[in-house]
Design brief:
6-stranded mixed beta sheet, 10 strands, 4-stranded antiparallel beta sheet, globular
Length: about 230
Amino acid sequence: MMLEIADVDLHYGAAIALRSVSLQATRGEVTCLLGRNGVGKTSLLRAVIGAHPVTRGAIRWEGEDITRLATYDRARRGIAYVPQGRDIFPLLTVAENLETGFAVLARGARRVPDEIFDLFPVLKTMLRRRGGDLSGGQQQQLAIARALITRPRLLVLDEPTEGIQPSVIKDIGRVIRLLRSRGEMAILLVEQYFDFARDLSQSIAVMERGAIVLAGRAEELDHADVRRRLSV
């Protein structure tokens, strides 16, 4: 087991965003968190990466309790986050955006591996272009590549298909499958689209109103029930 979220509550002021949430993510697998907008998916990811403190419960990573660790310390422990909306630096070049991933690496490891361009060939031709000049799909590939620069053992992806053209969605799915197949990292994926999640995930959890209401192995869940819970 790699990541364990145990009975987590999270509040924004008086409002409760997460209610007794428990979830696990395992090395060599994709764990997908599904749900409509506003049910707490991003809040859970923010708890995992340390961007918002939890009110109750625990988060353990590789056997260590990281519940109170700062975001930077979690990144140093191999947790990488690709946020919804990508959050690349629009005025920096593609190369400079990639280099921002060096911050958590030892000085001797601060280089962009050739494999990044094997995974995302389009980036190699755009190294001198500003991030803000890229299409949405290219920015998404850049955001994932920047996360991979940190050599993560847990990759956290928040709706990587949002607003992306189908050809790039296929490319992102291909990369996730490859990373999963190596068995070296756990992947926690937040999605709204069941078909994308079903094709990639070994475990699926569905959230409603800040709580997980359905969870299990992807092949064992009632797909019609999952779709019903995701429909508006």
